[in-house]
Design brief:
The protein has helices at 7-14, 56-61, 90-104, 118-129, 147-153, 174-181, 202-209, 231-240, 289-304, 309-316, 349-361, 384-389, 391-396, 411-416, 429-439, 457-466; strands spanning 5-6, 17-19, 25-26, 28-30, 40-43, 66-70, 84-87, 108-113, 135-137, 161-165, 185-188, 221-225, 245-250, 257-264, 269-275, 278-284, 327-333, 336-343, 370-375, 402-406, 422-426, 445-449. By secondary structure, the protein is an alpha/beta fold.
Length: 477
């Protein structure tokens, strides 16, 4: 395996103090001893719950080539015989290494943020750009103060493209991260009521997301949802950040990356788009109007970084969502097939409504029902009860047959639902599990969605364990 960093470059970037017999270089970087690969450098980051220095021994046992540790923690490591790079602050050393990775890279770089769809857009870009060159992106949602520097530091020097997801819970969090990434293209997918409890209103969220424009490279491009109600605010903020190229995607007549026509099918979507004046016909392997919207942003960004648009469009047909973000499974029920739509990773009002529409369009078998299994949307603050109750209208406009709810905040929705469907409420995912298992039957389409902290992934696991997927490869639709 080729070296990711020579030791000379690693020491120079981090300004670390070598201790012991150092290797010639490292093949990877890890902050988790459980997933560390032999040859990695282990950065002993101190987090909110764990201190990486406590796992230094485990890292060495797993084959770490080097430990990067804090000077203050060195006495506590005792007689651990290991090659070390000693630094004042491990996270700062990781940031410095990320900055060095960006400085040496010739890759065309795209950064993505937004309240909804940023991880999906990042994965779409990774998938599509991977058909036209070597692309670097985190394999998970590493979008915070340690995830972005880690992803940067792991970027091979010869990458053709790189994609970074940048998230935030509070104002001021995106700014330092995007100034590390220095993208050529910055995408804002959509502004919605995610983390609304930390902001006065949606304009505040938009302003925080617009920090992504402040790190754009000279001559870079801002790509913004032209159908978003905050388009004018975002485009103005991009201009204030010095961005001259502000481009829109969506159905709006003035969008540079414009949806011309679209057919939404139960298991995919076909659409025609104009990308900077060029007409492109494409198929989206994952169903849903929101997926098409993401695809417009992806094709626009791919065009701006010089990728072959025809190959990118073809690649979208093979795209499948990640676990917890819309992945579908055909489950083997004793009496037939059960469809599971796994949306268990995250939830806010906009993504909830999109998932509800997705379930409404999902095909069912004979006697099959559409079952929505919904949990709390977290971090909505004083707006929570109103936003949860507000989902009643969206559900009432569909053909959903059964609604299973869990979590303290979902009580507001349970109290607001009226109509010809079965509604059941429990106070937690664990309390809901036996009811879910008793309710489902062959022919049903079941959609499970909540904020990750609600533990609804355990409901997905209960279904997939009891009724294993019929195919080894998850369905794209």
């Amino acid at each position: 395996m080729s070296l990711l960093w020579t030791m000379e470059a690693l020491v120079a970037a981090t300004d670390g103090r070598p201790l012991g017999r150092l290797p010639g270089g490292i093949t990877g970087i890890s902050i988790d001893s459980r997933t560390l690969a032999p040859g990695d450098a282990f950065f002993a980051i101190t987090g909110d719950r764990f201190d990486g220095h406590d796992f230094a021994g485990a890292a060495m046992a797993a084959g770490a080539a080097l430990l990067v540790v804090s000077e203050a923690k060195l006495p506590a490591l005792g007689r651990l015989a290991a090659p070390m790079l000693v630094v004042p602050d491990v996270l700062e050393a990781l940031r410095a290494l990320g900055a060095a990775a960006r400085a040496r890279s010739k890759a065309r770089i795209v950064a993505v943020t937004g309240s909804v769809g940023k991880t999906t857009a990042k994965e779409m870009l990774r998938h599509a750009l991977g058909t036209v060159g070597s692309v670097h992106a985190a394999d998970r949602s590493f979008n915070n103060h340690w995830g972005v520097p880690l992803t940067l530091a792991r970027m091979p020097a010869d990458s053709d493209y790189a994609v970074f997801e940048i998230g935030m819970n509070h104002a001021g969090e995106i700014r330092p991260l995007v100034k590390l990434v220095r993208p050529h293209v910055a995408i804002v997918t959509l502004i919605a009521a995610a983390h609304l409890g930390n902001f006065k209103n949606l304009d505040g969220i938009a302003a925080a997301k617009a920090e992504i424009f402040e790190g754009l490279e000279p001559g870079g491009h801002a790509v913004i949802n032209r159908d978003d109600q905050r388009w004018k605010l975002l485009s103005r903020l991009a201009g204030q950040a010095g961005v001259e190229s502000v481009l829109g995607f969506g159905e709006h007549q003035r969008a540079q990356f414009k949806l011309v026509k679209c057919k939404l099918n139960p298991d995919n979507s076909t659409f025609t788009a104009k990308i900077a004046g060029q007409e492109v016909i494409a198929k989206m392997g994952a169903p849903g109007r929101h997926m098409v919207q993401n695809a417009l942003a992806v094709m626009g960004a791919a065009h701006l970084v010089g990728a072959d648009l025809a190959k990118v469009a073809m690649a979208l047909a093979e795209f499948a969502p990640d676990e917890g973000r819309g992945r579908r499974h055909a489950l083997a029920h004793p009496d037939g097939t059960l469809t599971l739509i796994d949306e268990s990773y995250n939830a806010n009002p906009a993504s909830m409504r999109a998932a509800i529409r997705l379930l409404d369009a999902a095909p069912v078998g004979e006697r099959g029902r559409r079952i929505a299994v919904l949990g709390d949307m977290l971090e909505l603050g004083a707006h929570s009860a109103k936003l949860h109750a507000g989902l009643a209208e969206a559900i009432g406009e569909t053909g959903i047959d059964v609604v299973l709810l869990a979590g303290p905040e979902m009580k507001a929705l349970a109290d607001s639902l009226e109509g010809g469907f079965q509604v059941e409420y429990r106070d937690s995912a664990e309390a809901l599990r036996p009811l879910l298992m008793k309710t489902v039957r062959a022919g049903d389409a079941v959609m499970i969605k909540s904020s990750n902290g609600m533990g609804f992934a355990r409901l997905v696991a209960a279904l997939t364990t009891t009724y294993p997927p019929r195919a080894e490869r998850p369905m794209t639709a």
